[in-house]
Design goal:
The chain is an all-alpha fold. The protein has one domain. A hairpin with a 2-residue loop joins strand 3 and strand 4.
């Protein structure tokens, strides 16, 4: 794809959220005012449910129609919810905040996607179980440094190339499990909900100190299960090329853009008071300096990318396009679901336990954006002990276990730990649970369909149908439920159950 066409696509892709923001002037005027909390009717969750069903069934039952028209379905269903909030509920700020979160989300994933696509990593090795385990383990650690999106975009193509000739759906599935989700549970950089917690007052290294002993056995179990799967795969990949380094990197300058993107995450008035809040007159804009930096990185990273790296990575914008349109609809249509969940959680705050928070946060994080789900349950659990989530000192006290929950031996730190672990881990339950999931799926679907020669001179060719990623339902019922749920149940049993170490 030429640079002009990429820029044209970018302008079209950003037109929808920009237009949505522009046609809601009431949101501008109310940006700085407190808007009373409204409870939406339960039927307003229907557009979100319909969108999930379409995402699950569209590629399976009417793939050509879905591929051509999914932006219309996503935006249309999201617009139904947005218009109801603005016109009927007179709550435009709910839409404003949804667009704000969406633009922050899109800026991050777009910047990391383009920057990582400018780095080509060639692994000169034969795809074998232990080699694959090593790559996935490295990805799990890397996810905490460059975020799950960055790690997934850096490693998915090398991982697929490493296993050419023996690719199976489980390769993509376990990559999503480990690299795109569970791996990023150790730092605020790893996954958005953890970063939101950091912005609210959770100490930066709190997650590392309190989650590592949950993260390590979970990653180890997933790697072990993957090893069993891969050992049964008798197909042989091509042998390594003689005289070629084990690891060869083309386009190392892309690492600079990844570093800029990760650094921009902290360009926030809540972290650095000197950072200005962008405004239009008296109203705050639905984006800030951080988002502008990230969108600029996406453009500059592409313009300065090594052409060979882009070519060997088979770079195209379809993965980020799919994520952009579908998640626009998801962010808008899930607003009433999040509101109803938040109200229910607050009403039942006295009944909250680490186990309840683990399953509640987890069950919803697989289908809703895990960042606002994390905040809803954090607010409810802090409210149960008389603390305000809007106070950084209160959040820090809650994280450090200094608040009294009225139950002997139970620390508020266990509450926060269960919410943090569930928000990150359960993002792997569905393709929509976390942004990198969809991007990895899209890359895997298109992998090898472009005639690109590997360093050994062998063209990729077409990926066999049996190596394609599973459908939405196949992913959920064949892999996520039978593999992830037992592991997560074991985590609950050991830590958060009534017999657990932290209950």
């Amino acid at each position: 794809m030429c640079k002009a066409s990429l820029l044209r696509w970018a302008s079209r892709g950003l037109a929808a959220p920009a237009l949505l923001w522009a046609v809601a002037p009431s949101a501008h005027a109310a940006a700085l005012s407190a808007e009373p909390t409204v409870t939406p009717p339960i039927w307003l969750v229907a557009p979100f449910v319909v969108l999930l069903l379409l995402i699950a069934t569209g590629p399976l039952f009417f793939p050509h129609h879905w591929h051509r028209h999914y932006p219309k379905y996503a935006v249309g269903l999201g617009a139904v919810v947005a218009l109801y909030y603005v016109v009927a509920l007179e709550a435009p700020m709910a839409v404003f905040y949804a667009v704000e979160e969406y633009l922050s989300f899109l800026a991050l994933v777009a910047a990391l996607f383009v920057a990582a696509s400018g780095i080509y990593v060639h692994l000169n090795a034969r795809g074998r179980p232990l080699t694959n385990v090593a790559v996935l383990a490295v990805g799990a650690v890397l996810a905490n440094v460059v975020a799950t999106t960055g790690a997934a975009m850096l490693l998915i193509r090398p991982f697929l190339n490493l296993n050419r000739g023996r690719l199976r759906p489980y390769h993509v599935v376990f990559f999503i499990f480990i690299v795109a989700n569970v791996g990023g549970a150790l730092t605020p950089i790893g996954d958005p909900p953890l970063f939101l917690g950091f912005l609210r007052g959770v100490p930066f290294f709190w997650t590392l100190a309190n989650v590592w002993y949950v993260w390590l056995p979970t990653v180890a179990l997933l790697l072990g299960v993957f090893y069993v799967f891969d050992r049964r795969n008798r197909a042989e990949g091509p042998p390594p090329e003689a005289g070629v380094p084990v690891v060869r990197v083309v386009g190392g300058r892309g690492a600079v853009w990844i570093a800029v993107t990760v650094g921009a995450v902290f360009v926030d008035p809540q972290v650095i008071p000197a950072v200005p809040e962008l405004r239009l007159g008296a109203a705050a804009l639905p984006f800030g300096v951080r988002e502008l930096v990230m969108f600029a990185v996406a453009v500059l990273a592409y313009r300065t990318a090594n052409p060979e790296a882009l070519r060997r990575n088979e770079f195209n914008v379809e993965p980020i396009r799919e994520v952009g349109w579908l998640f626009l609809g998801i962010f808008l249509s899930m607003v009433p679901a999040l509101s109803l969940i938040g109200s229910a959680a607050s009403a039942q705050a006295d009944a909250l336990t680490p186990g309840v928070l683990f399953w509640g946060t987890g069950a919803l994080s697989g289908f809703l954006d895990n960042a606002p789900t994390y905040l809803n349950f954090l607010a409810a659990s802090m409210g149960s002990v008389g603390l305000d989530v809007g106070s950084a000192d209160a959040v820090r006290l809650f994280a450090e276990g200094g608040a009294d929950v009225g139950a002997p031996g139970v620390s508020t730190g266990a509450f926060l730990q269960s919410i943090s672990v569930a928000a990150v881990f359960f993002g792997a339950m569905t393709y929509i649970g976390n942004a990198p999931n969809f991007m990895v799926k899209a890359i895997a679907e298109g992998h090898g369909t472009v005639s690109v020669d590997d360093p050994d001179g062998v063209p990729h060719g077409e990926v066999p149908h049996g190596a394609r990623p599973p459908s939405f339902a196949g992913y959920l019922f064949r892999y996520a439920i039978p593999i992830l749920l037992p592991i997560y149940a074991l985590v609950w049993l050991v830590l958060y159950s009534p017999w657990g170490l932290l209950s």
